[in-house]
Write a structure and sequence with these properties.
By secondary structure, this protein is α/β, with parallel strands linked by helices. The protein contains 13 helices and 20 strands. The chain has helices spanning 33-48, 72-88, 101-110, 123-133, 149-153, 177-181, 189-201, 237-244, 266-270, 287-293, 302-312, 331-344, 371-394, and strands spanning 24-29, 52-54, 62-67, 92-96, 116-117, 159-163, 165-166, 185-186, 206-210, 225-228, 231-234, 250-253, 277-279, 317-324, 348-353, 400-409, 412-416, 428-431, 441-449, 454-458. Helix 12 packs parallel to helix 13 (371-394). The structure holds iron/sulfur cluster. Iron/sulfur cluster (SF4) binds next to helix 6. It holds the Pfam family Radical_SAM.
Length: 460
Amino acid sequence: MTDKPVSEGISLTAEDTQISSNGRVGMVSLGCPKNSVDSEKILTQLQLNGYEISNNYSDADVVVVNTCGFIDAAKQESLDAIREAMTENGKVIVTGCMGKGADAELIKEENPGVLAITGAHAYEEVMDAVHEWVPPTQAHNPFIDLVPEEGVKLTPRHYSYLKISEGCNHSCTFCIIPDMRGKLVSRPVGDVLDEAKRLVAAGTKELLVISQDTSAYGVDVKYRTGFWDGMPVKTKLYDLCEQMSKLGVWVRLHYVYPYPSVDDIMPLMAAGKILPYLDIPFQHASPRILKLMKRPAHAENTLERIKKWRQQVPNLVLRSTFVVGFPGETEEDFQLLLDWLDEAELDRVGCFKYSPVEGAKANELPDHVPEEIQQQRWERFMAKAQQISTRKLAQRIGQTMTVLIDEVDEDGAIGRTYADAPNIDGMVYLNDFHDCQPGDLLEVVIEHSDEYDLWGSPLS
Ligand code: SF4
C-alpha cells in the first residue's frame, strides 16, 4: 500500500455527520456528469453512515471505483483505474456502467480479487458491499446523529438528505457536537443549490434539509449574498427554501429551532412552495429544564408561536423529539411537559430517556434521575403522545392526500404523505395495490388510521 492519491477523486459535496469514523473509503469516479451524481450520492451516503472519505489509496479501508463504459477509450480508462486500485490498495468495489454483462465478466477475469461488482445507480448494493468489507464500528447515537438509524442503513433513491451547514453555535449541556465540530459553518448557498439540483436530476423526489441548527443557516456569514444560476441568492434559510421550491420536489425541513425568524418561512409553506412540515427538537417544555439544558430559544413562548404558525398554515405538521429523565427533572417538570404536549398537539413525537454522552456538561449536573423513574416517565410520555397521534390521524379519514411511494412488496404499496418524514414518522399503506413504484406520487383516499399509520386506496 502506498500514499499515492486516489486517481480521480471527485470533490465532496456533503460534510460528515458523525463524531467518530466507521472506516475510510476511497472513491474513483470516471465518466459523465451522471456518473458523478451517482458518486456524490454514494459519498453522501457513506458520510451519513459515519465513514470518512480518503484521498489516498494507502489509508482507505476499501476503494469504490465508479466505472464508465460509454466508449472503448472510457472502458479502457475504467479497467486501468480498477487495476491501479487493486495494485495500490487491493480492496476494491466496482460499480457503474461496466458493472453488468460482458464488461463485468471482463473485470472479474482481469481482477479476480475484486470484492463486489454492481451496475449503475446501484447505491444500495455499493453500501451493502462497503458494510460487508468495512463493518461500521460506531453505534447509532440519537443525541448526536442527524439521520435516523434506519435512514443510514438504507440508501434511498427517491429521497435525499441535504446538509446545509456544519457545527453549531450553541452549547446544550447534553451535547458534545460544538466541541467536536466547532462553530456553525454554513455551506455556500450556490453549492447547496447545485447539490440539490444534481440530486433532483438523479431522481430525488424529496429533499430532506438537515444540519445541527437549520434556522441558523447563514448567521456565521452574516447572510452573505451568494450566486446560483447567475442570480444573487442570500445565504439565508428563507432564500434557500425559495430557490429549492423551484426544483419541483418536496422540500422538508429538519432541526429547525423556534426562533422568531422561522415565522418568515410560513408564507412559503402556506403557498405550497415547501412542505408544511417542521421538525423542531423541543427536547422539553419546562423552562427550568430547558435552562439546565441550555437549549436555544429556551425563553421563547413556544405555545404562542405554534398557535400563530397554525393560524397562517392550518395544515402545518409539527414533529419533535424530547428527552425525559434529564438530571434534575422533577415530577412537576415532567407533568408540565405532558400538559404542554396536550396543548401543543404535536403531530409526531419521539422520546429518549436521558443518557450521558461522554464529555457532556450535563453529566456534572446534580440529581440524576433513576433508571426506573426514567422508564416510567418515558412510558407515560409515549402513552400521551399516542393518544394525540391517534386523534389527529383519525381526522385524516376521508381526505385525499398525495402519497410518495417508498416501497412496493407482495402486500401492496407503502408510502408517506407530506406529514411524514422517512424512517421517523408514519406510513400510508395501500393494501393489494402494486401498480406503482418507489418515487411515484399518487392521490390517495384515506380510509383507516391507527396510532401511527394510515391506510387508503389510490384514486382511480
Ligand atoms: S443545538 Fe444543542 S443539541 Fe443541537 S448541535 Fe447545537 S449544542 Fe448540540
